[in-house]
Write a structure and sequence with these properties.
The structure is a homodimer. By secondary structure, chain A is α/β, with parallel strands linked by helices. Chain A contains twelve helices and 20 strands. Chain A has helices at residues 16-31, 46-57, 63-87, 119-126, 152-163, 197-205, 213-222, 275-285, 314-328, 355-365, 389-399, 415-422, and strands spanning 3-8, 35-40, 92-95, 102-104, 113-116, 130-134, 137-139, 145-147, 168-173, 194-196, 226-230, 238-241, 254-258, 261-270, 293-297, 302-310, 332-336, 339-345, 372-376, 379-385. In chain A, strands 3-6-2-1-9-11-12-10 form an eight-stranded mixed beta sheet, with helices on both faces. Chain A has a four-stranded antiparallel beta sheet with strand order 13-18-20-19, with helices on both faces.
Chain lengths: 426, 426
């Protein structure tokens, strides 16, 4: 007899058939005696289609109107899901973000939730209905529709779970939980039963796309237990929750990798104070999200700066760097589009010295060259050449004792699920 | 310097290109110094597509969820229209039905407007923006989304025009005004400059699909001047407004025809009181909208009842009639699917006796057999065989002096416009 928030992403509601399956799943929970609030994303590629439609009438549409447009995507899927539940003889009621009381600031397209007035959701639950809420959207105090930006539906689910004091926030997706590494890259990866908020946050930030870092951050702040599980099977997934420090912890929880970044190196800069500040303020003003940075001085007294950034921002980054190079007399600009970041994550690292050394030694033994290094108290990230990402993940996975006895077989998945996994960072 | 409400139907916003044209049109009005509130329908076939999507998950979806679903259609087109206006450097702001303050009852799928809180629209206008409002939708006092049903967007436009005391409510469609008859049927039909509310109401009710009767009724009640005009040309259309009785009026304003009805005849009923009541209460309980009714008694003392109804309700009608026939021992049921109703409409009829006689004589001279007759103080409708509808409209059009000197050439229209006209009753 629990109160459950269950979030289904765009892939899970991509077609009427899949919506029917989600309806069955929610009804099964209801039949077990639970109260259920479902949170849904827009169907499949709907959001992309709406973005394209907007682009056809305005190359840089106002964000208020964009949010007005995009919020229709979830409104369609939530109404259809409510209908599908009703078709099976169960009560359901759907609410848009504003009807569900999700109040946000007016930062259109990436609004933050200020608070949630849950009275309509509670009313819906009291009538015995399965309540279906549109993810990704909210309303300003002025009464304008906002969207929460990337990862918004996960955030809606976690925020609602917090608002109604749900026992668990189940996040359904095309993968069946959090793995110690991407099973397609490391076939001996194992599904984790539990991951701490801190570790999940690092894993999410470093390329494990199953959960959005923002939602995990919210969950950590309000102690919402997340259950990451598959929309296509009944298997238990991974719990993301507070893990007592006294618990016996593995040194490393998992290994994330990310091949979506690129690296730019500026050579021959005058070695004087403020150079890095200039470069990165130009990049920031061009909306480039810089990840890792290295600055060093070569033998000729000139400075070199390297940094990584999302490959999708390549044009903005090059434009900014060319401007900076002119200003700072750089002798050369190099871009490496084929890099990979591999990150070891584990809260246990804090109490276990020598992790970095062991990681670097392992990579060296496997003849994998480290291009850049970045660390946090519970994470070690290295940048390697893109061609070596699989080898790097595998040898680290083995070296840190993460290998499972069973080998993950990709053929267990349908072509559809594999396609979905390939696209999991969306 | 007027305040204008301009409504554009689904055909007018069916593609990004057409939305751009609507934006240009609205901007032209703004440039002339007018304040503009646009009301839009969903793009093209969007509503049909959403209905099909709903049917794929639930064969009889709850109306609340249906309205939730369908209301997204206008939300998409209004956001795109606002973006298209902004792309041209003009201010625009879009509002959903609930944001525009359109309060309705909770009669989902065919809600009635209770009142309109126009403060957001006024605020928008005060900032100098072109205000774009979603047609067809409103909100209940509980905060649930409703739709207004068939003709809802026209009604939204008229109601808003009333609420903000607009000078005129322009209703743009694929036809350029109200004609004395359908030009495709009567090539000498003339475009009318002015039509009274009463005549327009009869014309709309009797098959002239340009304006929805419901919107005309609303306009008549609140004295809103409607300008029915083409979305594809700048030509003046037809004004629908109060016409002073003292004005010199034509006897007949126009001739409407309607081929969408069917006729059922029940024969051999016992001629006793209450038979008609029984037949029509069964039809009503089956949601059949009966139009014309004839009851007579044949020589054998048995009663015959004939009635017409929308062809789209054929199944419901037959089911009801079969039930009634069994109850009342009818000897025979006949259905005629190929009939046409031709209606002469004109307020001038009231002060001009002999119109009916002249109409019947004209039809007789042209060897057109009258199957049924129905009249109101300003309308005479006859049902004729479907094969004779063109002949009937043309001979009446000529007989009542409506013929124009110029002949309407269908080739003046693009294939698209013709297709749109063919579909104008939607």
């Amino acid at each position: 007899m629990a109160l459950i928030v269950a979030k289904f992403g765009g892939t899970s509601v991509a077609s009427p058939e899949r919506i029917q399956k989600v309806a069955q799943r929610l009804i099964a929970k209801k039949q077990e005696g639970h109260d259920v609030v479902a949170v849904v994303s827009a169907m499949g590629k709907t959001t992309d289609e709406l973005v394209a439609l907007a682009a056809s009438v305005n190359t840089s549409p106002a964000k208020r109107e964009m949010d007005m447009l995009l919020s229709t995507g979830e409104q369609v899927s939530m109404a259809l899901l409510a209908m599908a539940i009703q078709a099976r003889g169960y009560q359901a009621v759907s609410y848009t973000g504003w009807q569900a009381g999700i109040a946000t600031d007016d930062n259109y397209s990436s609004a933050k939730i200020d608070n949630i007035d849950t009275h309509r959701i509670r009313e819906g639950l009291e009538t015995g209905a399965i309540v279906v809420v549109a993810g990704f959207q909210g309303i300003t105090t002025e009464g304008d529709i906002t969207t929460l930006g990337r990862g918004g539906s996960d955030t809606t689910a976690v925020a609602l779970a917090c608002g109604i004091s749900a026992d668990v926030c189940e996040i359904y997706s095309d993968v069946d939980g959090i793995y110690s590494a991407d099973p397609r890259v490391a076939p001996r990866a194992r599904k984790l039963d539990v991951v701490s908020y801190d570790d999940m946050l690092e894993l999410s930030s470093e390329g494990a796309g199953v959960l959005q870092a923002r939602a995990v951050e919210f969950a950590r702040k309000y102690k919402v237990v997340i259950h990451s599980r598959s929309a296509f099977s009944d298997a238990e997934g991974t719990l993301i929750k507070e893990v007592a420090p006294s618990m016996e912890q593995a040194v490393i929880s998992g290994i994330a990798h990310d091949t979506s970044e690129m690296k730019i190196t500026m050579r021959g800069l005058h070695d004087e104070p403020g150079i890095a500040a200039k470069v990165f303020s130009i990049l920031a003003s061009n909306n480039v999200s810089v990840d890792m940075i290295i600055q060093n001085v070569s033998t000729d007294g000139k400075a070199n700066i390297s940094f990584t950034f999302p490959g999708s921002q390549k044009e903005n980054a090059m434009e900014a760097v060319n401007r900076a190079a002119e200003m700072l007399d750089a002798s050369q600009i190099l871009i490496d589009e084929n890099i990979a970041k591999v990150s070891l994550v584990g809260t246990g690292m804090k109490s276990s010295p020598g992790v970095a050394a062991r990681a670097f030694k392992t990579l060296a033994e496997n003849e994998i060259n480290i291009l850049m290094i970045s660390t946090s108290p519970i994470r070690i990230s290295v940048v390697v050449d893109g061609s070596q990402v699989e080898a790097a993940v595998r040898c680290l996975h083995t070296a840190f004792g993460l290998d499972s006895d069973t080998i993950f077989e990709e053929t267990q998945l349908s072509a559809e699920e594999i396609a979905a996994k390939m696209n999991k960072g969306r």
